[in-house]
Amino acid sequence: MTEKKTVIYRDATPETIETLGKLLRDGGLVAIPTETVYGLGANGLDSEAMSRIYEAKGRPSDNPLILHVPDMAAAKPLVKSLTPTAQRLMERFWPGPLTITLPKADCVPDRATGGLPRVALRCPDHDLCRAVLTAAGVPVAAPSANISGRPSPTTADAVYDDIKGRIDAILDAGTCDIGVESTVVECGDDEVTILRPGGITEQMLLEVVSKVNYDTALSSPTAVPKAPGMKYKHYAPDAPMITFVGTPEQVANAIRQEDDFTEVGLFISEETAKLLQVSPDNERCLVFGKAGDAKALAHALYSGLLHFNGTKVPRILAEGVSEAGLGRAVMNRMLKASARHVVKL
Ligand code: TXA
Ligand code: MG
After folding, report:
1. Which of the ends of the chain has fewer CB neighbours closer than 10 A, N or C?
2. Model's pTM, two decimal places?
3. DSSP letter, residue 104
4. How far is CA 304 from the centre of its chain?
5. pLDDT tens digits, 255-286
6. 50 C-alpha vs ligand 2 centroid, how far in Å?
7. 49: helix, strand or coil
8. What digits encode the pLDDT tens for the residues 66-113?
9. Collapsing DSSP states into helix, strand and coil, what is residue 311?
10. In angstroms, rounded to a whole number, what is the distance separating the alpha carbons of residues 288 and 298?
């Protein structure tokens, strides 16, 4: 791969938006902010441009891409038919962190779907992102903007640190609000199947459809997932990690019992830090917020994991949350980041 000069745009002027839109349309690779994580964008109708995404990320070629659109009208030509259920989902949750798979139209290249008959569509809840998508005038394929297997980036600097030299540009719009990726659903007739949990929860989906199923692979390590990306190693920090789930007292006790606990990285709640009498501003100890706060943990998770990559800690001991609401998405990511080493206390 020839080394590229990666330009970071820190100021989203109308000229910058036009420049990045054109760069995308013409086959370039541009990292764009969204409300979940930064995405690595390329023209979603241009197979060669999308091949460059796979090359830049070292992404397995059977793992399909999400096409990002600025609105529902731009989604319509990409699917065989916009079913009434899909329309209801889009009207209720777009723009927002819900990715919907539907049978693809012929204009969508196989490169976007990894040869699958369905295409995944998403409209991000991020004004600057949608402005770039509008300026591009084409659907933008965008996986998370990290080297495959590593934690997803929630800041422009995290994108730069991970894939500089492999992409053309990055639009810096600060820290992503949510911090974990969108919910991916396969859209059926008045029902959906969650392939990847995310910012839109089962309870929210039940406002719109009668039934919400979960892909069996989410609870069985041996089943083959319907979202090909879910079978790969993901979100892994450099150091091995163990995640404990329980009350702050239980988590603090479990951490104290690890004999190297004064040398490892701690990624814990305020309450647990207090019980362990560790200072939260020490580079070895990151506090995500209050115990059980899934939203705060989602927001801090990937930047926390990346922080420890910059330290020499031999292990990371982390605190999880219950799987209610957004907690389901957070724990799905922590299970992978910990290579399934999650201990329920
Ligand atoms: O929040 C997000 O969704 C972020 C931002 C950048 O939009 N994007 C993201 O993309 O997380 P990526 O590529 O890292 O994850 C996409 C997931 C993968 O697990 C992939 O296998 C699945 O969606 N996927 C994509 N197209 C699919 C399809 N046609 N059928 C089933 N799963 C699909
Ligand atoms: Mg990803």
Report:
1. N
2. 0.96
3. B
4. 15
5. 999 988 889 999 999 999 999 999 877 889 99
6. 15
7. helix
8. 999 999 999 999 999 999 999 999 999 999 999 999 999 999 999 999
9. coil
10. 9
**Residues making up the chain, counted from first to last:** 345
Other Cβ atoms within 10 Å of 88 Cβ, number:
15
Nearest-angstrom CA–CA distance, 68 and 152? 17
What does 256-272 look like in DSSP terms, one character per residue? HTSTTTTTSEEEE-HHH
For 58: left if phi > 0, alpha if psi spans -120 to 50, otherwise beta; the answer is left
Ligand 1 interacting residues, C-beta cut-off 6 A: 34, 36-37, 39, 63-66, 97, 99, 101, 113, 116, 118-120, 122, 142-144, 181-182, 184, 195-196, 226-230
Q: If you ran DSSP here, which 8-state letter would residue 195 be given?
A: E
| CA-closest residue to ligand 1 atom 32 | 227
Cis omega (within 30 of 0) on the bond before 143?
no
First-to-final CA distance of the chain:
47
**What is the C-alpha to C-alpha distance for residues 200 and 180, in angstroms, rounded to an integer?**
11
Partners of 67 in beta bridges: 121, 141
Query: Atom 6, ligand 1: which residue's CA is nearest?
Result: 39
Cα Rg for the chain, rounded, in angstroms?
A: 20
Q: Is 102 exposed, middle or buried (0-12, 13-18, 19+ CB in 10 A)?
A: buried
Amino acid at site 207: E
Helix%, strand%, coil% for the chain, nearest 5: 35, 20, 45
What token pair was written down for 222? 């041996």
The string over 153-165, giving b where at least 16 C-beta atoms fall within 10 Å of a residue's C-beta and e elsewhere, is bbbbebbbebbee
Tally DSSP H helices, then E strands, for the chain: 12, 16
